[in-house]
Amino acid sequence: MIDPIDEAIARPPYLWGIVAGLAAFLLYAVTLAPTTAFWDTSEYIATAHTLGIPHPPGNPFFLAVAKTWSLLLAPTGLSVAVRINLFAAATSAAATGFFYLIAHRILVGIFDEPRFARIGALTSSLIGATAFTVWNQSNVNEKVYTLSVMIIAIVSWLSVRWHDRGDEPGTERYVLWAVFLLAIGSTSHMMSVLPAPAFLVLLVLTRPLRLMTLAFLGRAVLLGALGLSFNFLLPIRADLDPVINEGDPACASVAEAAASVFSRGNVGCPALNSTLTREQYQTPPVWQRKAPFSAQMATFMQYFEWQWARGLDASELPSSSRAPFMLLFLALGFAGLYATWVSDRTLFAYLAVLATTLTVGLVVYLNFKHGYSLHAELPPGDREVRERDYFYVATFSYWGCLSGIGLAWAWHTVAKGMGAEATRYRQTAPILLIALIPVGLNWAWASRSGDYAARDWAYDLLMSVEPYAVLFTNGDNDTFPLWYVQEVEGIRKDVTVIVGQYLYTSWYPRQLQELTRPGTQRTFDATSVPGLHEDRPAPTEPLTTIDPNVLDQVSTIRLPEDVTVAFPKLAVTYPSGMVLDRSQQIALRIINDSAVERPIYFSSSSGLMAQLGLDRWGVRHGLTTKLELRNLETDEHEGMIQGSPEYGGVWFDLEKSLKLYEEIYEYRGLRDRDIWADRSTTMMPFQFYVMALQLSDVAALDGRSPEFVQRLQDDAEAFQIVAAGGPRGAPKVQTP
Question: Global pTM?
């Protein structure tokens, strides 16, 4: 009789692994986002589509494979966003398939019959695929991390194969493939190298002398260099000036670029070094803790608790209803490690080191501030700007795999104490239903089906502004979705979107100048929405005419005396002692140079507009606020109405705003949504709530019918419910 372990080594159940992966892919496809989403989703979809350069470290391997994937799916007729979202689904599903193979290899050392090992491995893949963050990150391409999870799973499987077959001629290829994947994966994100410590431990424990040859080491070095060479894509693309070119990592020579690429940003090309080392984020070394380690572990455990029963409580905070499931799957994961110890001690070493790296090691390395919701009482600068559970997507996928191994071991252990051998596994099989818990309790929260909120938010913002407008934004969520709508859907490319934070850099103001010069300024398509805006000629000058070298010299200043900045028909005086930083000064210069030919808008009157003291001249055009270059109190302002003081006293261009609100804007997922899972983005539906409420006020002041005013108020209430988390997603108010 053939030993089951020998059979698994000789013929791994690849077909079953494919089935497990396809099942996960189908689940992600059913719950797939139909378009873009908030945070980095739009940036990555747009840069993958245009082969632009996203924020550091630039992610060239992701860009190349995502673009290739998108081109291969183009004949299907699917939208670009769906194709790139399916890339996240496919890479995560592939990881599920490889984790299935690993779980099966462990379980054949536990079960007497191979079919039970296959069933146990299926439960393992199911749990890993449906952990909340894994699922939520696999049905939209918010980050580049599902590609890294796939690489972690493949490297782990290659490690298993080296352990099992390393005595056979030619099997050094498993190690070489792992080296290549770790290297090339690092050019997508450093998350890809997380299996490296476990991989090295396995190599030390398994035939290390076989690898200590010049031939092998030479091939390993060459493959590592080949993988790292993907970073050459960054200076090549930067030199071609794509519209999205963050960091502008162009280099003066190939030699300079090569020095940067192969030193990982330590020598060579300054701009490429800055991108590869993520210099703009000024991340401190890990020994300088941003928060106590205990607080960082508490946040990690908060995210761990979400994975298995997120839907039991709408609150992000630790919940007594979710806690039993957290403890269950925590115990099952440790049981999986114990089962691995029983099955194979060397593989236990690999899996245990990987588990340590992906948990405690990752918490130490990431070095986050206090948690976004766990420490909501702290000032914004002392806590993260959003939940960071997505950084642990590999952790939760892997722990789900371990939990499934542990569940299968528990099934085996219970069955051993039952009756006749022929029926005991069948009688105890209901224990495997535990694997369905994450499916049922995470579905509504992890699904992104029907979520058009980010796309419609961006579309509405762009449609609010006049031709060739300058639109100042404040951060990721009112910038990246606009990039997506412009670069992927081709809508309102004439609008110059300026995110204030990027004005601190040297490369961004230069790019804005180049993109708005005559000849490169993209034109307004008057046929896109007929009758909404009056057509106008393209500007004859870039948005600022100041010399780029002079722009580079702008830095933060404290005004020694009162300074008056004059715009057409208005002037603003900044008092002595006021601090104006680089971003504010450049923004003022852009406004001053552009105001005659380019309408100036802000996505919010409370951000940069208020900092510059310009909000008193703001007039709402729907969601946006236009800088009116006149005195609203004394100059003629036909069609503009000031709201009541109790509603903020905001000026509205009423006809323009109502046309936008009634005829142009789209509200899918903003006005009618059961669950708004990400509390850090509820400001988006909240802004629609404020707009509808203020519109109802100015409509009443203008003498519109009570029925119309009431409809606006009803809309405001619907937006408010969504902004609170939705009917099913709002945390319950605790009463004393």
Answer: 0.95
Closest CA to 481 of 32, 35, 67: 35
Instruction: Name which of 517, 483, 519, 488 is nearest 498 in CA terms.
Output: 483
Residue ranges of the alpha helices (H) in 206-292? 214-228, 233-239, 254-262, 270-276
Q: Report whether pLDDT(201) > 80.
A: yes
Which of 290, 295, 270 has its CA nearest to residue 280?
A: 270
What is the rounded distance in angstroms from the CA atom of residue 536 to the CA atom of residue 466?
9
Picking from 700, 575, 718, the residue whose alpha carbon sits closest to that of residue 646 is 700
Q: Is a pLDDT exceeding 50 seen at residue 518?
A: yes
With a CB cutoff of 8 Å and minimum separation 6, the contacts of 683 are: 477, 723
Cis peptide before 645 (omega within 30 of 0): no
Does the pLDDT at position 250 exceed 70?
Answer: yes
Indicate the length of the chain as a whole number: 736
Beta strand 600-602 with 579-580: parallel, antiparallel or unpaired?
Answer: unpaired
User: At 625, phi and psi to the nearest 5?
Assistant: -120, 125
End-to-end Cα separation, the chain, in angstroms:
68
What SS3 state is found at 193?
helix
Q: Which residues of 645-676 are buried (b: 16+ CB within 10 A; e: fewer)?
A: eebeebbbbbebbbbbbeeebebbbbbebebb
**Contact (CB, 8 A) for 725 and 685:** no
User: Tell me, what amino acid is at 187?
Assistant: T
Residue 90 CB contacts under 8 Å (≥ 6 apart), including other chains: 25, 69
Query: Residue 99 belongs to what H/E stretch?
Result: helix 80-107
**Residue 81, H or E segment:** helix 80-107
- SS3 label, residue 425: helix
Q: How far is CA 559 from the centre of its chain?
A: 39
d(CA 17, CA 130): 16
Q: Quick check: 476 and 485 in contact, CB under 8 A?
A: no
What residues contact 510, with CB distance under 8 A and at least 6 apart? 248, 548, 551
**Which token pair is 719?**
């937006």
Confidence tier at 634 by pLDDT (50, 70, 90):
low
Look up residue 383 and give its two tokens: 């806590």
Domain boundaries along the sequence of the chain:
4-212+283-445, 453-635
Residue at 538: amino acid letter? A
